[in-house]
Design brief:
The N and C termini lie far apart (about 110 Å). The longest helix has about 30 residues. It contains two helices and 44 strands. It has about 450 residues and is mainly β.
């Protein structure tokens, strides 16, 4: 090996830096850089992994009561932390409360169940006197199959701006998921890809104090209470949205909306007992909804517009019900200004569309066929209704749809024009208007 004095090994003009020194410096720099990168990766991994509850006294064996230990971890977690519940079964003797802001709970595959001797188990986010904000829960299942029959029980009760994603509730003795605003909420509640299977009452209930709540891609199967308590999804807050949701086997309504400006869009309701979708607030919309398979009884409307102003039904399919779409008065307030456009109503036992109350409604561009008695029915005090550009027919070998468009003697002021409702396609007549002040335009009705 050449000596440091060898001219071929000297790299500095002054002769004080050799090739060996340079190589050693480069090796040291590379080692230091590798250490920095490794340390950064380790820190990043630790941040992503979050706080594992199994390292803080939680057992997750499905038998030990983990409630106190879980709450201790959630209470001590710093703002912005991620709390990790590995895929195990956590038995708890009561509600697990989350009272901190800015918290993420990752619980993919984790199950919360009642501990032995416990009456119930559920997730409670926020306190009854305090909203929390910016809490996210992902992947948790609350399984209440062995819970006591607690009146008005719940699987998840949340209060505050938050995101519930892929959260599942099974066999709730009361409601599945309840979102409550406590009077001070300004929005920011999102339920995404959540599921409720077999609840004794409402599957998902967004209460009146929750404006602009969003229920997206959620599933409710089996809301079993009769009467007002058995709806699949209930939206009471103003401007709430149910988007691409699926409801099946509801003993009451599939989707019921109270709040002003609520919207159900691209939702599917299958197997229900009272109404598939019910609009009960002003300025509500149902867009591209599909409703089918009424479970029996004298009710069973695909969509009901009740006592409200300016309801909008746009497109969608309503089949296998008593009436596909109905406009009614039940609380002494006549509905006004309902607009039904582009809907398909078929195979309903009484009528495709029935307007039984109110005034100023518009039925345009709907396809109504193969129903039991009427394509479009006017009844009650329904007045000043525009019926334009609809297609009504029955193409079955033995026609049962008696009339394409029919109004009873109590109706008045209907304007009927540009409809295709030929008599040959009905058992009795294409169009028959009884009542006062009706105006018949040009229609294909012969």
């Amino acid at each position: 090996m050449p000596s440091p004095a060898d001219p071929t090994d000297v790299l500095s003009p002054r002769g004080d830096l050799t090739r060996r020194d340079w190589l050693r410096a480069v090796a040291a720099a590379c080692a230091a850089l590798a250490g920095v990168r490794a340390g950064g990766a380790t820190a990043l991994f630790a941040q992503q992994a979050g706080i594992n509850v199994l390292r803080h006294g939680v057992r997750g064996d499905g038998a030990s009561d983990d409630r106190a230990a879980l709450e201790a971890v959630l209470r001590s977690a710093p703002r912005g932390a991620t709390v990790l519940l590995p895929a195990r079964t956590y038995a708890v003797s009561g509600p697990v409360r989350v009272a901190r802001d800015d918290l993420v709970i990752e619980a993919a595959g984790a199950r919360l169940v009642p501990a032995r001797g416990g009456r119930t188990a559920y997730l409670e986010i926020g306190a009854r006197d305090r909203l929390v904000s910016h809490v996210t829960v992902r992947g948790l299942t609350v399984d209440l199959a062995n819970a006591a029959a607690v009146p008005f029980g719940v699987g998840a009760f949340v209060r505050g701006p938050l995101l519930l994603e892929n959260v599942t509730v099974r066999s709730s003795p009361g409601e599945g998921i309840v979102v409550d605003g406590g009077g001070g909420l300004r929005g920011g509640v999102v339920l995404r890809r959540c599921a409720v299977h077999q609840s004794a009452m409402q599957g998902i209930h967004v209460r009146a104090g929750v404006p602009a709540g969003r229920v997206e891609d959620c599933t409710v199967d089996g809301s079993n209470a009769s009467g007002e308590g058995g709806a699949g999804i209930v939206l009471r807050g103003a401007s709430c949205v149910a988007l691409r949701c699926s409801v099946s086997n509801a003993r009451d309504n599939g989707i019921r909306m109270y709040g002003v400006g609520c919207r159900a869009e691209a939702c599917r309701v299958r197997r229900f007992r009272v109404d598939g979708v019910r609009l009960m607030g002003d300025d509500q919309q149902a867009v591209d909804c599909h409703v089918s398979e009424h479970l029996g009884g004298s009710a069973g409307n695909g969509l009901r517009i009740r006592d409200v102003r300016n309801a909008r039904v746009t497109r969608g399919t309503f089949e296998g019900c008593v009436t596909g779409i109905v406009v009614v008065n039940r609380e002494g307030r006549d509905p006004v200004g309902a607009v039904i456009t582009g809907a398909t109503c078929r195979l309903n036992s009484v009528a495709g569309i029935a307007v039984r109350a109110g005034s100023g409604h518009s039925l345009q561009g709907n396809v109504v066929y193969n129903n039991g008695r009427y394509g479009i029915l006017g009844a009650g005090n329904a007045a000043n209704v525009q019926v334009r550009g609809n297609r009504c027919y029955d193409d079955r070998p033995r026609r049962r749809q008696r009339f394409g468009i029919y109004t009873e003697p109590t109706t008045r002021g209907w304007r009927v024009a540009e409809n295709d409702s030929r008599s040959a396609a009905h058992a009795e007549a294409g169009i028959r208007l009884r009542g006062a002040g009706h105006v018949m335009g040009t229609n294909r009705a012969q």
